Amino acid sequence: GLELTFEIWENTQGKAQARTVAIAPEPSCNVVEGQAREMEKKPPAREKPGSLHPNEPRVIYPSVYVSDVPVEWNEGGIKKLHRQLGLNPETIMGLKFLPFTEVSLGLAGSKGEKQATPVTGAVILRYLNEEAANAAVERLKGHPIQTSTGVTKHLGAKHATP
């Protein structure tokens, strides 16, 4: 079998979460059998109830879901639009372009008879603070953009759960 590497942290509900899962470049040495049994017996120690796990993010940035973003846009395009709308692009702490779905491709309900090329997509933007996120929703929502096919669309923008 393959050996995986990953980080584990506890979310606010105390449930274990894994992230940065990858195939290990080299197998690690085996844990001595007695150590493995000892580790199984001990529950993980926590400093105090409600304390953060060392790998848990310290800050949760306010998130904004933006739809109908032209597929050819990248981070630079998003920041350029922020400048054009009088928003500070430096308040963007991170962004993630979301994968296309059958609905976004216009394939929902079709049995593969048509192939669609996406023209717009969606992105999650994470902002420095609530004030920046609110300003972004206010300015981005309904803003007209032109797609690569020449069609005018209007951006959607709403607060997303972090």
Helix and strand layout, with pairings?
Blueprint: E1 4-10, E2 16-23, H1 33-41, E3 63-70, H2 75-84, E4 92-97, E5 120-127, H3 130-140, E6 144-146, E7 152-154, E8 156-160
Antiparallel strand pairs: 1-2, 3-5, 3-8, 4-5, 6-7
Could you walk me through the main structural features you see in this protein, from its secondary elements to its overall organization?
There is one protein chain. By secondary structure, the chain is an alpha+beta fold. It is 19% helix and 30% strand. It has three helices and eight strands; from the N terminus they run ββαβαββαβββ. It has helices spanning 33-41, 75-84, 130-140, and strands at 4-10, 16-23, 63-70, 92-97, 120-127, 144-146, 152-154, 156-160. It has a four-stranded antiparallel β-sheet, with helices on one face. The protein has a two-stranded antiparallel sheet with strand order 1-2. Strand 1 and strand 2 (16-23) form a beta hairpin.
Task: List the defining traits of the structure above.
single chain; 162 residues; alpha+beta
